[in-house]
Amino acid sequence: MIAAVGVKKSYPGRPVLRGVDLTVRDGETLAVIGGSGCGKSTLLKCVIGLVRPDAGAITVDGTDITRLTREIEVAQYRRRFGYLFQEAALFDSLSVWENVTFGLRYLTNIPSARYRAIARDKLALVGLKDVEDMKPAELSGGMKKRVALARAIAAEPAYILYDEPTTGLDPIMSDIISDLILDLQKALKTTAIVVTHDMKSAYKVASRIAMIHEGRVLAADRPEAIRASQDPYVHQFVEGLSQGPIQMKLKEFEPEVGR
Ligand SMILES: Nc1ncnc2c1ncn2[C@@H]1O[C@H](COP(=O)(O)OP(=O)(O)OP(=O)(O)O)[C@@H](O)[C@H]1O
Ligand SMILES: [Mg+2]
Q1: What is the Å distance from ligand 1's center to 45 Cα?
Q2: What is the per-residue burial (b if ≥16 Cβ within 10 Å, else e) of 61-86?
Q3: If you take atom 28 of ligand 1, which residue's CA is the nearest one?
Q4: Which of 112, 175, 215, 259 has its CA 20 to 30 A from that of 201?
Q5: What are the C-alpha distances in Å from 117 to residues 21, 101, 114, 127, 227?
Q6: Of 43, 47, 46, nearest to 32 (Cα)?
């Protein structure tokens, strides 16, 4: 289980998370939605310990990452996670199969002779074939995303953090990736957080959806309840409406953004 309590994080001159409370139960897939720049990626980075919150606690199976200081403890903590970075973050100089299996030597005792075959299997799961020996520069944006996804699941982790898994993919591939997230959750009992703007995917994969607004969790509920929400902020966001309370807020911030 992942439990975030009162998580706060500011970057210089910019408060981002202002007290996030969230629980992700074992076996659950929580979708996190919210406007661009509201702190979704920051929250995932806090969970895995890449960003240290200014306040609050994030506990995973009883271990509070915000209290770990020794490198070895942080490494052990991170072993439980697969992480799909929003920007794919592949190593340019490594081939696709080396990218996919990069973490295995740190995370598992699997003999390296098996890495190529494992990469092939995981790539097939995300709909890629015969790309093992290519370099990231030879791939389209959507292919890079899928290679990064194959890497995130390579060690079959207990927890997977997906940052925008379907962004930049065509609608059919988006749906295939949503199905894959569901399959992993069923087959491996994975517990996952999926950050997404893709409401179709969120409704499909999530057991619950949490919306972040102004640094806090504005609503967290079952997908049907979020879809039917009468809250004007939630309604505007999930329906993708240009008119509503969120636009007024964005206008207030406009001078700051341009500064
Ligand atoms: N390393 C950093 N240093 C300074 N500011 C940062 C840093 N990382 C993020 N920010 C700022 O924090 C805010 C939240 O960023 P974050 O990437 O978490 O948003 P997001 O919700 O993931 O947005 P998007 O939907 O566009 O991916 C933004 O205003 C961003 O400019
Ligand atoms: Mg982001």
Answers
A1: 11
A2: eeeebbebeeeeeeeebbebbbbbbb
A3: 37
A4: 215
A5: 41, 10, 6, 15, 42
A6: 43
Ligand whose nearest atom lies closest to the CA of 46: 1
Ligand 1 cavity residues, CB under 6 Å:
11, 14, 16, 34, 36-42, 86
Q: Give the residue among 40, 145, 161 at the shortest CA–CA distance from 96.
A: 145
Q: How far apart are CA 204 and CA 150, in angstroms?
A: 20
Q: Note the ligand closest to the C-alpha atom of 36.
A: 1
14 alpha carbon – ligand 1 mean position (Å): 10
Atom number in ligand 1 closest to CA 43: 18
State how far the Cα of 215 lies from the Cα of 16, in Å rounded to an integer: 6
Between CA 87 and CA 241 the distance in angstroms is 26
Distance 188 CA to ligand 1 centre (A): 31
Residues within 5 A (CB) of ion ligand 2? 40-41, 86
DSSP state for residue 214 in the 8-state scheme: T
- Ligand that lies nearest to the alpha carbon of residue 197, given by its number in the listed order: 1
Q: In the CATH scheme, what is the code of domain 1-80+159-166+190-259? A: 3.40.50.300
Q: What is the pLDDT along the chain (259 residues), one digit of tens a residue?
A: 999 999 999 999 899 999 999 999 999 999 999 999 999 999 999 999 999 999 999 999 999 999 999 999 998 899 899 999 988 889 999 999 999 999 998 888 899 999 999 999 999 988 899 999 999 999 988 899 899 999 999 998 999 999 999 988 899 989 998 998 998 888 878 999 999 999 999 999 999 999 999 999 999 999 999 999 999 999 999 999 988 898 755 555 555 444 4
Rounded Cα gap, residues 242 and 240, in angstroms: 7
